[in-house]
UniProtKB/TrEMBL annotation, chain A:
Belongs to the TolB family. Residues 44-149 form the TolB N-terminal domain. This is Tol-Pal system protein TolB. The gene is tolB. It is found in: Periplasm. Its main location: periplasm. Keywords: Cell cycle, Cell division, Periplasm, Signal. It comes from the Bacteria. The Tol-Pal system is composed of five core proteins: the inner membrane proteins TolA, TolQ and TolR, the periplasmic protein TolB and the outer membrane protein Pal. They form a network linking the inner and outer membranes and the peptidoglycan layer. The keyword Protein transport does not apply. It comes from Pseudovibrio ascidiaceicola. Part of the Tol-Pal system, which plays a role in outer membrane invagination during cell division and is important for maintaining outer membrane integrity. Residues 1-41 form the signal peptide. Pfam families: PD40 (PF07676), TolB_N (PF04052).
Automatic annotation (TrEMBL), chain B:
Pfam families: OmpA. The Tol-Pal system is composed of five core proteins: the inner membrane proteins TolA, TolQ and TolR, the periplasmic protein TolB and the outer membrane protein Pal. They form a network linking the inner and outer membranes and the peptidoglycan layer. Residues 1-24 form the signal peptide. Residues 44-160 form the OmpA-like domain. Keywords: Cell cycle, Cell division, Cell outer membrane, Lipoprotein, Membrane, Palmitate, Signal. This is Peptidoglycan-associated lipoprotein.
Length: 454, 160
């Protein structure tokens, strides 16, 4: 029994529209006619271990009719690249596939796939529709059980092919790991060009895999530390507009920018609350930086800390009840957790070195941070009670972690040495074994992940 | 001469000036302007070349050492004399720290300079502060000698 869901052609490339389509695409994750009987949970990847052996998976090049032949091939390549970069899957080189020329209706010869060691198989077809849209179908197969695990069908415009690929990757990831994926997401970051002593910085956005880079500011003003809203197409960041550094709100759909609040000094280090209704940030007054909360609807601000110290980099727990931040109130930069009304601040970092830029995992179980010790810059995680510290990556300069929406991957930037050196965006998963460079056109820093809309 | 060339020359001159100041202080009260007489007294160039527009800090510190205080004494004297200038004190950090903290650290350094100049009689209404954190290095090598030049507070003249 086939259920077909349609999408209107996209008239503009408006981001909101794109995201709305994404919602519908995901919501329409429906089963197309199964060739074999529906399966129970047969193969599943346990991703709770420290070091995961990647699952061998075959992505059979998608079949395309007519104009869509190239697109079909590209979609299957992006799916394979997504799964490979996660570190949880090992896509098998298509030239090693024994059964070639498959389309979504082809029954797999499971013995052929077992022979090359594949545990799962993805097949698909892309077809041109009379109205200019494309129809995309894919199936995920359990090779050992000889059964179909997923069959889905989507309609969209050809320009949307990358999003389609990421949505398929998310479906495969979720079915095989039991957790939500993060491939149909984007990353805001700071694009950096020009010499080191005269850097031009632009607010920019890209797909999580580095594709579709788009610049949101022109580089006239210094911009820093963008953060995605968890609920809307808005970014909060710091800008030196008019030589007056302040926290701003930027609407990605409209390009509109507004300063947040009317503070008697520099504001910086903003981050949204989990409900997206408030922004928490630092206000500099004289030698001290304290934390403030601003309600985006009432525009009222509340002071949360009041110390003769630098309190900055605040980040809410996912339930909104607590805030982690860095402070040098004890003499050096350390991590503190307090209640979201500012009470009960407790230090949680006690290892050697300085701890900064804490950010609470969307799962709530961990806090990621930058640690500087003996001239080395590390990205690590620690439990909110201060126990279980683990360093995930370490080197000359690693800074500014941000979580994937499923809480399994961190993005951060790594700076390289010297006059010609500069930052690039990387990802590392929670095992620490899977580091990946995100290719960007120029140097890039301060990455922050968008939510996965559902 | 291009603006950039001038700026680089001025930076170099400023570093030299800072090195010489301590010796000058120990002997006699420094002249209001001295050294390069080809520079017009009371000009922006005079301030940069003959007074010194910047002071430097130790790693993670914002306290003013003897040579920093000597430069600021000269700045205060000069600003007392040329009252039509306002100033912006720009605080900076080196690249070996994290971004948000460095923004606050630069602000703390600018605030230390501001407090010192106010204590020396410069009206607070003439002074603005601004922090660039680690975003505007002047020395780009990967060595302590460069990082120490970047940990600075620069007094920038305006208003004339």
């Amino acid at each position: 029994m086939s259920f077909v869901m349609g999408l209107n052609p996209m008239r503009t490339t408006g981001v909101k529209q794109l995201w709305r389509h994404a919602c519908r695409l995901v919501a329409a994750a429906v089963t197309v006619a199964a060739i074999s009987q529906p399966a129970y949970a047969l193969i599943e990847l346990d991703i709770t271990q420290g070091n995961v052996e990647p699952m061998p998976i075959a992505i059979s090049p998608f079949a395309g009719s007519g104009l869509q032949e190239d697109v079909a091939g590209q979609i299957s390549q992006v799916v394979a690249a997504d799964l490979q970069r996660s570190g949880l899957f090992r896509p098998i080189d298509p030239t090693a596939h024994i059964q070639q020329g498959m389309n979504v209706g082809t029954m797999p010869r499971f013995g052929d796939w077992r022979t090359i060691g594949s545990q799962a198989l993805v097949t698909g077809s892309i077809a041109q529709q009379a109205n200019g849209q494309i129809r995309a179908e894919f199936r995920l197969w359990d090779v050992f059980a000889g059964q179909q695990l997923i069959g889905q069908q989507f309609f969209t415009t050809p320009e949307n092919w990358r999003r389609l690929a990421h949505i398929i990757s998310d479906a495969v990831y979720q079915r095989l790991t039991g957790e939500k994926g993060y491939f149909d997401t984007r990353v805001v970051f700071i694009d950096e060009s020009g010499p080191k002593d005269a850097r031009r910085k632009r607010l920019a956005i890209m797909d999580q895999d580095g594709a579709n880079v788009r610049y949101l500011t022109r580089g006239d003003d210094l911009v820093l530390t963008p953060r995605f809203s968890p609920v809307s197409q808005e970014v909060t960041y710091m800008s030196y507009v008019g030589g007056n550094p302040q926290v701003y709100l930027f609407n990605i759909e409209t390009g509109q920018r507004e300063v947040l609040g009317n503070f008697p000094g520099m504001t910086f280090a903003p981050r949204f609350s989990p409900d997206g209704q408030k922004v928490i940030m630092s206000l500099q007054q004289g030698s001290n930086a304290n934390l403030y909360l601003m309600d985006l609807r009432t525009r009222r601000t509340t002071r949360l800390t009041n110390t003769a110290a630098i309190d900055t980099s605040p980040s809410f727990s996912p339930d909104g009840s607590q805030v982690v931040f860095e402070s040098d109130r004890g003499g050096s930069q350390q991590l503190y957790v307090m209640n979201s009304n500012g009470s009960g601040a407790t230090r949680i970092s006690f290892g050697p070195g300085q701890y900064s830029t804490p950010v609470w995992s969307p799962r709530g179980d961990l806090i990621a941070f930058t640690k500087v010790h003996q001239g080395r810059f590390m990205i690590g995680v620690i439990r909110p009670d201060g126990k279980g510290e683990r360093i995930l990556t370490e080197g000359y300069h690693n800074e500014g972690p941000a979580w994937s929406p499923n809480g399994r991957v961190l993005t951060f930037f790594r700076d390289t040495v010297g006059e010609q050196g500069g930052p690039q965006v990387w990802t590392v998963d929670l095992t620490g074994y899977n580091e990946q460079l995100v290719q960007t056109p120029n140097f890039a820093s301060d990455p922050a992940w968008s939510p996965l809309l559902d | 001469m291009s603006k950039t060339l001038f700026a680089r020359g001025a930076r170099f001159a400023a570093v030299v000036a800072v090195c010489l100041v301590a010796a000058a202080c120990s002997q006699t009260r420094p002249e209001l302007t001295s050294g390069n007489s080809s520079v017009a007294a009371g000009s922006g160039q005079d301030f940069v070349v003959n007074v010194g527009d910047r002071v430097f800090f130790l790693n993670n510190q914002s306290s003013l050492d003897g040579s920093a205080r000597a430069v600021l004494d000269k700045q205060a004297q000069w600003l007392q004399h040329y009252k039509n200038y306002s100033i912006t004190i720009e605080g900076h950090a080196d690249e070996r720290g994290t971004r948000q903290y460095n923004i606050a650290l630069g602000a703390r350094r600018a605030a230390a300079v501001r407090e010192y100049l106010v204590a020396k009689g410069i009206s607070p209404t003439r002074i603005k502060t601004l922090s660039y954190g680690k975003e505007r290095p002047v020395a780009v090598c990967n060595a302590a000698s460069c990082w120490s030049q970047n940990r600075r507070a620069v007094t920038v003249l305006s208003g004339q």
